[in-house]
Amino acid sequence: MNILDKLNELRSLMQAEKISAYYIPTSDFHDSEYVGDYFKGRAWLSGFSGSAGVMVVTLSEACLWTDGRYFIQAEEQLAGTSIQLMKMMEPGVPTVSEYLKQHLQANDVLAFDGRCVSYEAMKEWQQLMPEVVIKTDLDVFDQIWPDRPALPSAKAFLLSDELSGKAMTDKLAAVRESMKQHQADWHLLTTLDDLAWLFNMRGDDVSYSPVVLSYALISMDEVMLFVDETKFDEAAKAFFKENHVKLLPYFEVYSKIETISGKIMLNGKRVNSRLVQLCHEIIDLDNPTTLMKAIKNETELTNTRNAHIKDGVAVSKFMIWLKEAVQHETITEISAADKLEALRREQKDFLELSFTTIAGYKEHAALMHYSATADSDVELKPEGMLLVDSGGTYLDGTTDITRTFVLGPVSDEIKRHYTAVLKGMLRLSMAKFLHGCIGINLDILARGPLWEMGIDYRCGTGHGVGHILNVHEGPHDIRWRARPNTISAVFEPGMIVTNEPGVYIEGSHGIRIENELITKCSETNEYGTFLAFETITMAPIDLDAVLADQLSDSERNFLNAYHAQVYTKISPFLNEGEKAMLKHYTRAI
Amino acid sequence: MNILDKLNELRSLMQAEKISAYYIPTSDFHDSEYVGDYFKGRAWLSGFSGSAGVMVVTLSEACLWTDGRYFIQAEEQLAGTSIQLMKMMEPGVPTVSEYLKQHLQANDVLAFDGRCVSYEAMKEWQQLMPEVVIKTDLDVFDQIWPDRPALPSAKAFLLSDELSGKAMTDKLAAVRESMKQHQADWHLLTTLDDLAWLFNMRGDDVSYSPVVLSYALISMDEVMLFVDETKFDEAAKAFFKENHVKLLPYFEVYSKIETISGKIMLNGKRVNSRLVQLCHEIIDLDNPTTLMKAIKNETELTNTRNAHIKDGVAVSKFMIWLKEAVQHETITEISAADKLEALRREQKDFLELSFTTIAGYKEHAALMHYSATADSDVELKPEGMLLVDSGGTYLDGTTDITRTFVLGPVSDEIKRHYTAVLKGMLRLSMAKFLHGCIGINLDILARGPLWEMGIDYRCGTGHGVGHILNVHEGPHDIRWRARPNTISAVFEPGMIVTNEPGVYIEGSHGIRIENELITKCSETNEYGTFLAFETITMAPIDLDAVLADQLSDSERNFLNAYHAQVYTKISPFLNEGEKAMLKHYTRAI
User: Fold this and answer.
1) pLDDT band for position A574 (50/70/90)?
2) I need a surface site. Which of A88, A518, B111, B507 has the fewest CB within 10 A?
């Protein structure tokens, strides 16, 4: 079936059901960022494989919205499919809501699977288009996708308190404290990373995200966890029983929620609209677990530092291998990514990659979230640069690191761009700022050196990172524009955030350098509490494209001190030959 | 009458009227920032002379709220008055609303003059304390302030199009365009600077602010301007008549508004609650004139640059005089301020100072908005520093400039602080940034060098400046924390903003360096439109406290280029001796 056939199939079904527009998010029942294969109907239907994108199909048009990270990739993958690319946030491009409002008349039917659409989105459309009929119970992929994958059934396990740093019972007590504060009788929790954090459980139900498909309903004296209990071993089931957590079948939440009386606290931006429609009375608030989870405890921080040393050993070995091997061996983007994965797998307590490795050579690196396919894969040569954005989840933490490796001669322009990216990354790493700042206050530190050159990167500068969890998490981030309807959280000690400015020149090159930072207390005085960052990513930043004379003294000193630390922490895990190379790659400049 | 007597007088009146709490803002009928003498009841009652502060008096307590600029001054002036200082934004200090909520019981009466309190504030209190009786028609100062000044009756005049750059009729057309867009039948405008801008009129009804007490009601075919028409000459009256602007008595707006049918567009945050209560139907929006006024036209920009040269000549002459004369003459804070005023008055088309000159020597400069009085005035010595924040309004524009002059030896700590302030001021001046940025994105450029030292200044970094108008205007600003319920405007080409980081060490010293910047288009490319700043303030920055080795190359180059420009523009207006000194003060470092 090609894309046009699939669209025809969908439109036949729409005509039969008298539907004018069918909306397809990239979403599971839990508003997860990455979704299991069962939920990848948009990718199957459109051929666009990026992780972010939503579609609207009408009887005459099909449109796909995605963000700046994916413009180039989506243009290529949608060519010839009849699907129009809608570049989000670009001038003149309607939002999904604006598009629907323009294209739907009174009594037209807009349909979607309400379990995959948030309550907020549905509410917005109801208010915007009161004359349009909204149908929320149609999952077309059940009918038009012949070999749709099954829902996942991976095994799940519990984290010991030594790994989580905080017992489930303590976390439940904190959630109940928040419920009291907001006078809630129940809390409905549906976001998978919040559930994994709260119950100290991990699984493998979504690629790269060690979560367990589940829902929870919590009152002051009851906890119901809706999950396929066969995923757990007997010890885990006994633990839940002992601690009064009742396990109920995964889908039973939809019938249970109807029977609940009292005020239900939930996050209407994240809970699916079907569930909210079944609630009698809600208190719409951010999940308290989101902030609790973002502020890592001392155990999580200590373990995460350790995960970054293991991850840094893998990346350092990869760098040493790559820069030498590319001179005489046949290496491609995919084989390089495989090599790096193999090096990570050698590390103790490695669980899985934290996301699909991005290994983009030369102009491929300009595609911000490029993922090589058999078709696109190219051989690396001893020239230009390879951008590698990758990470691992270990039993002690999750990592996210980008390095752009210099494989041979690069142009002066590339060196200027590389140096500006590095300057931005360093300036943000060195920041000291008053408590109360959000990412919008800090973004210009990383982005400024590029803006000075008239260059921007069309994405944020940084995101939170989960602990043995999702590689992207909130509620804090670093970006220059506020997200609509969302207030980024104030930085608190214990929050981890990435620092990843970049340059993306279409058809030419892409550069990104990414370290992870822990937010720490720097000093408290009459002005308030000053915070600063501790860099925890431990791998060399390729010096071969750095124009050292363009670094300020403080930038240069910080870089040299960082590299000295990388050598100290990573070299004990290397052989003599590798040590010598690491010494060179971490040389003071 | 001392403060305690005045409070007793007020409380007797409150008891007679059965009032539990009387609220006293620092506000006129137009929510002006600086108010005429008639409206300075708070200063008269409390003895606190700062420009910002509100009071609540109950039968047993009296409290005064002010912001960080005034903490030190207020502490001194309120000592022994029984009035408690409430430090706004400090941890644990209740807001006015929280205080009222805590102290008022059901059926208690909260009273104030509704003409001096915004609709927003009154609405908030009604919602917060539905059980409290709110009385809005009591102006106690009519009864307890024996020698209350009269309302001002200064002459007013019209600006020619050569001075305003845009005819009143064009401005009215733009306002009507906005009214159409918002489906408004009427627009009620009450903010004096907006009125002055819209009608191209200027006057002298508020100290330092060349505005005219007035209100306007505008429909698609009518314009009513409520103003004491004796303020205008016959030509002005004829001009208004020709252009169908009907002049009506100032207070008549209160009876007229009751007769209006149709939707009235107004800014509920700024219009007084008495007026809004008299409206039948409102559309609550920011005044369209606020943004229009902030984006200066080419005439205004050209004229403003010229005003800054004249102002720079006065400040440069002052600096040359001061640094020499302090070695052997008797100079005090007040006499120095007088000298500077005299130098400004020598300049062509000078109208008045744009605010009270702040001339603070040594530790007085730590009081952010210090204004010397006969009691506080001190003699300057050839040591330490004098902070001078001042400005003028000329027929071609309004200025605001701060320089901190080195009068003799200063400590190494002062030099470190001075250099950090300078670095911040320069970094912000050099910023290049994408259109879409607000001040919150940029603030850390100015504040960062101080934060690095664990120092903060408890105020914003910059504000808009009016054109022959208020020295403080919005809707843009530069600050790191969002103001509650206010969204700062995105920077647009043509906006003027101040750049004034500082260090304030209580009991020791204060440093502020302030230039004004024009926002300009830098380049437009595939990433969007990049903006940058043009520095228009033209006076030397005292180099005698600069630690040159702490400036980066780009900071040093920018400073040297700025000083070269100051010399080029200012020296033609100086005598030979002054030129030589200016050459020295603008030397490259």
Assistant:
1) very high
2) B507
Query: For the residues B185-209, what does the mean pLDDT come to?
Result: 96
Integer Cα distance of B504 and B367 in angstroms: 7
Q: Name the residue of chain A whose CA is nearest to B433's CA.
A: A451
Helix (H) or strand (E) run with residue A318 in it: helix A298-325
Q: With an 8 Å Cβ cutoff, are B454 and A442 in contact?
A: no
The fraction of chain A above a pLDDT of 90, given in percent, is: 92
Chain A residues whose CB is inside 8 A of the B527 CB are: 454-456, 458
- Span A434-443, mean pLDDT? 98
User: Angle formed by the axes of helices B298-325 and B333-345, to 10°?
Assistant: 140
Tokens of A83: 């699907």
What is the 8-class DSSP label of residue A93?
P
What CA–CA distance (Å, rounded) separates B359 from B402? Answer: 10
B505 token code pair: 């060490």
How many C-alpha atoms does A405 have within 13 Å on its Cβ side?
Answer: 29
CB A311 within 8 Å of CB A401: yes
Amino acid of residue B518: I
How far does the CA of residue A431 sit from the closest CA of chain B (Å)?
7
Q: What is the tens place of the pLDDT at every residue in B248-283? A: 999 999 999 999 999 999 999 999 999 998 999 999
Inspect the interface and report whether the beta carbons of B454 and A444 lie closer than 8 Å.
no
Contact B27, B1 (CB under 8 A): no
Predicted confidence at residue B140, as pLDDT, reads: 95
Q: For A457, which residue in chain B has the nearest alpha carbon?
A: B527
Nearest residue, CB atoms, B530 vs list A451, A523, A528: A451
Chain A residues touching B456 at Cβ < 8 A: 434, 527-528
Q: Return the number of other C-beta atoms located less than 10 Å from residue B474's C-beta.
A: 18
Separation of alpha carbons B402 and A62, rounded Å: 59
Nearest CA to B517 among B464, B559, B563, B562?
B464
Q: List, in sequence order, every residue forming a beta bridge with B525; answer none if it has no partner.
A: B528
List CB contacts (< 8 A) between A527 and chain B.
454-456, 458
Interface A:B, Cβ pairs < 8 A: 70
Predicted confidence (pLDDT) per residue in B392-415, tens digit: 999 999 999 999 999 999 999 999
Considering chain A, what percentage of its residues have pLDDT values greater than 70?
100
- Between CA A404 and CA A360 the distance in angstroms is 9
List the beta bridge partners of residue A464: A473, A497
Give the Cα separation of B314 and B217 in Å (integer).
Answer: 41
How much is the pLDDT for B372? 87
Q: How far is B452 from chain A (nearest CA, A)?
A: 5
What's the token pair of residue B55? 């009071």
Residue A369 has pLDDT above 80, yes or no: no
- Which residues of chain B neighbour A445 with C-beta distances below 8 Å? 444, 448
Enumerate the residues of chain B whose CB falls inside 8 A of the CB of residue A522.
454
Closest of A74, A52, A62 to residue A10, by C-alpha: A62
**B368 pLDDT more than 90:** no
Nearest to B441 among A440, A455, A523 (CB): A440
With contact defined as beta carbons under 8 Å apart, do B406 and B544 qualify? yes
Cβ distance A451 to B436 less than 8 Å, yes or no, reads no
Domains belonging to chain A, first-starting first, are: 3-144 (3.40.350.10), 157-293 (3.40.350.10), 299-585 (3.90.230.10)
B437 touches chain A (CB under 8 A): yes
Q: For residue B210, say if its preceding peptide bond is cis, omega within 30 degrees of 0.
A: no
The secondary structure of A237-297 as a DSSP string is HHHHHHTTEEEE-GGGHHHHHHT--S-EEE-TTTSBHHHHHT-SSEEE---HHHHHHHB--
Please identify among residues 470-489 of chain B the ones whose CB lies closer than 8 Å to any CB of chain A.
480-481
Nearest chain B residue to A550 by CA: give it: B553
